[in-house]
Amino acid sequence: MSDALYYARRYPLGVIGALILIIFVLTAIFAGVVAPMDPLTTNARASLAPPSHTYWIGADMMGRDMLSRMIHGARISLAVALGATCIGSGLGAMLGLASGYLGGWFDLIVQRIAEIMQSLPLLVMALVITASLGPSLTNTIIAIAIPLIPNVARVIRANVLSLRELNYVEAARAIGMGRARIALVHVFPNTLAPLIVLATAQLGSTILTEASLSFLGLGVPEPYPSWGRMLSESAAEYIRSAPWLVIFPGLAISLVVFGANLFGDALRDILDPRQGD
Amino acid sequence: MAPVLEVSGLSTVFHTRAGIVRAVQDVSFSVEAGETLAIVGESGCGKTMTALSLMRLIPSPPGEITAGSVKVAGTDLLKLDEPGMRKMRGSQIAMIFQEPMTALNPLLTVGRQIAEMVSLHENVSRRAANARAVEMLHHVRIPAPERRAREYPHQMSGGMRQRAMIAMALACRPKVLIADEPTTALDVTIQAQVLDLIGDLRKELGTAVVLITHDLGVVAETADRMIVMYAGRKVEEGTTKDLFADPSHPYLQGLLASIPKFGAGEGTRLREIPGIVPALNNLPKGCAFAPRCSAAVAKCQEAIPPLETKRPGHAAACWVT
Amino acid sequence: MIQYTLRRLGLMVVTLFGVSVAIFLLLRIVPGNIADILFDSAGLIDPAEKQQIIKDLGLDLPLVTQYTHWIVGLAHGDLGYSYVSEKPVLDEILPRIPITARLAGLALLFAICTGVPFGVISAVRQNTWLDYMLRLMSLAALSMPSFWLGLLVLMAFVNWLGLLPIYDKAPATWGAALLMYGVPAATVGLRSSALIMRLTRSSMLEVLRQDYVRTARSKGLSEPAVTFTHALRNAVLPVITVIGIETAFLFGGLIVTETVFNIPGVARFLVEAIRWRDYPMVQNLVMFIAIIVVTVNLIVDLAYMFVDPRIRLRT
After folding, report:
1. Running along chain C, 315 residues long, what does each successive block of 10 average in pLDDT?
2. Has the ipTM of the complex gone over 0.90?
3. pTM of the predicted structure, to 2 decimals
4. C-chain residues near B97 (CB < 8 A)
């Protein structure tokens, strides 16, 4: 506890980042309670209503309350981002651990596959996977998670390789501990710090990828109001007549990614100073 | 003969979160042309900080030279502005460092790094600067200097890099050369060669050399005079011969007793000095060596002993001896 | 060095082969037969016509044959026909390439020309308010979705300047051309710029701690000479490697930016092809992107070797 206080004082920006994340996550969880209106109820008379007492940050073309849509959107955007980050980092870590620890042909194949995957931009791969699986909430999560795997696998693999040479691992081997046990007891716990750092760093980018996919109309389908979808192409038509449709969802995305980045930076400095930028 | 380098009352502090670290306190010495003065002490006693203070290369902040003067051929370096000081560095007072592996820029050829020094301080053409670089490499006995000048540091061995460093430091014939542990990172056989080289060039060019080392063997072989530092202060000074024969300060006595002597007989035990160098931000009130000193008396805890002349040309700061 | 280059070229072929297989298979596990989709969207009802579609597209052939057809065609510059426009794929892609290439080049140029200097300033002035400002700004730039930034830029242009930097086939003046390409390029390059800035900063801080920087100072060099001749040279080495990685990211950013600014480039075309389920187009476009990324990475690696004598002259 005193440790946490110490770090909180040393990394005030990290605390701000964590607070932003916590606020967004709480908003997402209690969206039903926090949102002033129903995000799906349309109201023809409120179409494109500017910010007012009733509609704090305006209403969209269908007269739905933007604030409520954004609060519910937090749920979708964060769920997709967290889900994708967990799945991608988890699978990547498992592959990296196995690849670094087993070595040999398995390592070679994993390395080649990682290289193949990294020769495509993240968004392109996510797009192709969505195109192939079809648009749905789960498929969006999968499409964003898969491109994360190679990067995580590579970092964890490099980490395992350096850990393998350490004295206590050698010692464990010398006293006849089994390979699987060494991997689980000695190697895995030491890859946790870089994994957490990496996953946090990915969180911001998964939120952005989801937003981009949804913006292009290939992400989370209707009726889920994800932030990216709210900004979807049609919004470009309203930049003159209803700028609040453009400004606020983007602000929400930027703010939560900013929080994730601040938090991730501080976490990296604390847990894994070597990883650097 | 007037000394080339005259340091008096030099004090350097570091402002850190843990308080003020007094790295160098009231250090004075002088070196004549062609003379080698050794600064001796354990690591953390302020040797390197003294050297960097002479060059005014103390990282500032947090470091700060608070008092004293450093006169090179009569000019007080501490009174110069930064551009004035830059003109002195390299041309009047040059330095070579401990780690030849990392002290040269890996992306520039050795020749270019030497030539850079020349064209910085002398108004010569690039071609002439390059020629001087080759000449200097030849001077420090590097074979095939034309070819070596076109090579990068990683293509040379540690000893050769240190020679190149010396070539660079001496390229503008500085009056003073500061050598900070120049041989510590090298193999023993190479060490002797590099020390010989520094000695020869000193005689040839009349350079005053300040040799910083913790290795008393090196001191015995190369230095004319030596000063002993402890916890940022000078505690003893004299000719090398005299100090080795009859050390006054218990610290130097301890240091000398801790080196193995050839032919000392099997039964002789090496002695070590108990304890460690005190933290420079939390020095005792009296003599800084007192907590480790077997000869310490009550007075040693009370006041810092002044430097007293024990014999002509031999001074020490100790209440007891 | 030649040996290394050849090895890299060999690995590059292996990687591209892997990409081609992956893309080919991915686009064939599509739920719902392509023929069905085309059949429905064309509004046809006659089952015979559906069979005709399948035959036309070669979908009745075994997968291996289909794949070989594609790759052999690819090697001959025959990329097949678009399902949608029914024109040769190559004719559709080729005219779009220069547009995207110009955007990407400008964006990269923008990113390097802003990222490196600001990174150096930030490092040299470490822990001053200027450093904090630059770091916060770079972090903010990394947090903004580039399409949103694009929309904001459009909004600013429309509301305050009363003009729209939209794509025009034949810009009248140099200024118009610069506006047309420069604004989207800066929008998409901002992210890379921020990333390069952060990397330059940390790399520069690392280098400034090195012994050879102290040596340079001990020679009497001025601070600018130390920073630029000695430190920066070493500090940009890791930045060079990241440029390769950034090219890939840049392409992702271009997909949305071209969409926002309505630029008919390759990147936006990929989204359109996916939306229209024009699979020959998607397949070839993705392959094209992979070739570009892999090639840029190879060039960057070779450039790195060329700049760093420790690798170039390895004995």
Report:
1. 84 90 83 65 70 73 84 82 80 89 92 94 90 92 91 84 70 77 91 93 90 90 88 89 83 89 89 84 90 89 84 69
2. no
3. 0.86
4. 211, 214-215, 218
